[in-house]
Write a structure and sequence with these properties.
By secondary structure, this protein is of the alpha+beta class. It has ten helices and seven strands. The chain is globular.
């Protein structure tokens, strides 16, 4: 088994945006890449408990599909992926604006505040003061719509971060380059070890990019050093992905 291919990766790889997928296909695909039935069942159970999947029937005779919550989470993931590739292609140059968001909730709604913090951090925002977050991107669309009433947002062309004014220095202070670059080691390894069936190759590549993207706030290239390695590796990843014969994996990714 390739330990980088998790049961959740297999499940999400086969989920259509609309409709359902037969669990027989999910189990057979998981087994083909070395994922056993028990961890797959556990992953399915967790996704159902989280409200992201619906399941009809049990075992291989069942079917699973995305709920509205699950569909929204995957949509937000794909927003990040689309932004990454667009930045790499030079299609969305940074406009020089910082997006600022302050969480404004009463103490009795602490759960809402905590959920917003998680959403903002997961989307790549960085805390700059108590309850105040910054990003070089407008993150409105990746924050849960029901929670936006608890945000106060603004944009600024100048940001003073405890005496630091240079945009690239601010980016390095809030989103250090080294751990982001290191996260792409998995992508480089997957590209170097690319072998096996089209199914295994795509799952391995998908798992590696997903792992790297979880650690990447997608800071605009203008705020990183020239020759930014994650951008180069994403380009190699995309070329390799497109060169693999079709496999029923990540139907909505690209």
């Amino acid at each position: 088994m390739d330990e980088r291919i998790t049961p959740r990766t297999v499940v999400e790889a086969l989920l259509p945006d609309e409709g359902e997928v037969a669990l027989a296909l999910v189990y057979d695909t998981a087994n083909a890449v070395g994922v056993a039935d028990q961890p797959l069942r556990l992953a399915l159970r967790r996704l159902v408990s989280a409200g992201e999947l619906t399941q009809v029937g049990r075992g291989r005779a069942g079917r699973v599909g995305l709920t509205d919550l699950g569909r929204e989470r995957l949509r937000r993931d794909r927003v990040g992926l689309a932004l990454a590739f667009a930045q790499d292609a030079g299609e969305v140059p940074w406009d020089g604006r910082w997006w600022l968001a302050a969480i404004s909730t009463p103490e009795r709604e602490r759960a809402v505040r905590d959920a917003l913090r998680r959403d903002l951090l997961a989307a790549g925002a960085a805390p700059v003061s108590t309850g105040l977050y910054a990003s070089p991107h407008d993150l409105t669309d990746v924050v849960d719509a029901g929670a936006r009433a608890h945000l106060v947002t603004a944009s600024a062309t100048a940001l003073d971060l405890r005496g630091v004014h240079d945009a690239a220095e601010i980016a390095e202070a809030l989103w250090p380059a080294e751990p982001v670059d290191r996260a792409y080691d998995a992508v480089e390894e997957a590209l170097a070890e690319d072998g096996g069936t089209p199914l295994v190759r795509r799952l391995r590549l998908a798992a590696a990019l997903e792992a790297a993207m979880r650690e990447d706030p997608l800071i605009p290239p203008e705020l990183r050093a020239p020759g930014w390695r994650p951008s180069r590796l994403r380009g190699e990843w995309l070329e390799r992905w497109r060169g693999i014969a079709d496999a029923p994996v990540h139907r909505g990714w690209l």
